[in-house]
């Protein structure tokens, strides 16, 4: 197995300018909107700048080109792509098969399939009901309304919203119960509005009338989720002056919440024309965070809290069970190397608990479970422990392909091995 040993920098201060990857959440939505708009009518004279080069976005680009009658479309491990392509292929009346990795076939898609079938799609499960792979046979809109059940994934809702203006009768979506990752739905609606589509969200109902997208120039923001790893580095370094180029305080991304969440962890953010500048400040001894709208930040905070000995109570982690891996189980396994355990108390409350002393005489080795965020959440621990070993370092290509190069730029010494 390939691995990388991450050694802490020789210098006390981490002073570096970083170009974060472009947001793959925005990029994938942008690509879907473009494909839908071009289906409505051919458009030109626009340019998308700073599109993500993450593997998820490359897969999205490839499948939009391959989406033809009779195609077998492999989304690999890209959950967003599975949800977006399901809606896209269905409403465009394409007879295709959508499949993915073994783990992808364990990630539920039933709520989205049920909603599309309510509208008039013909989608079948090829193996286990509620999960990929699926076969799409066609689409004729029968109803202009659909209901999504309590706790539905924001990606299901975003997929339906983006295809809604292309439907003959538009779409009215009723949301039952709470909505996870609401900030991603708000991002979707703002992007749709930018490209000329009006929506109405009142209470639990979102309405979208039949309309045409109007494509125009757009520049994708840097990824706020990726910024979290640099906040972690700033928190663990003795001194820090880290500039994250291009980040702004008026971002459309929900993970901009990092600014307020990382303040108690000892990181202060200043916005300049160049970007966000991270420096050190006082920290608190305990923290309580609800991750219901920011699940991609959870691993970063849990690992950082363990490294700093900060008491953390976390909520809203339910969706972590069905991500690239079971992220809760993965965290529990790997935190044991630090002497910590993530303990479920009650009603979705999780507490970081110290259960043993870390063996200071050995270099910690962390498995990544084919999960990019596991690799990047644990790598900054080299600042605390001197060095750490990360297995399967190539997983970062899913969202942050140049992560290891950026660590080297910041002064970390890396040793890549095949053992």
UniProtKB/TrEMBL annotation:
Pfam families: EPSP_synthase (PF00275). GO terms for cellular component: cytoplasm. This is 3-phosphoshikimate 1-carboxyvinyltransferase. 3-phosphoshikimate binds at residues 24-25, 29, 153-155, 181, 296, 323. It comes from the Bacteria. GO terms for molecular function: 3-phosphoshikimate 1-carboxyvinyltransferase activity. Its EC number is 2.5.1.19. Gene3D superfamilies: Enolpyruvate transferase domain (3.65.10.10). The active site is at 296 (proton acceptor). It catalyses: 3-phosphoshikimate + phosphoenolpyruvate = 5-O-(1-carboxyvinyl)-3-phosphoshikimate + phosphate. Belongs to the EPSP synthase family. It is found in: Cytoplasm. Its main location: cytoplasm. Pathway: Metabolic intermediate biosynthesis; chorismate biosynthesis; chorismate from D-erythrose 4-phosphate and phosphoenolpyruvate: step 6/7.
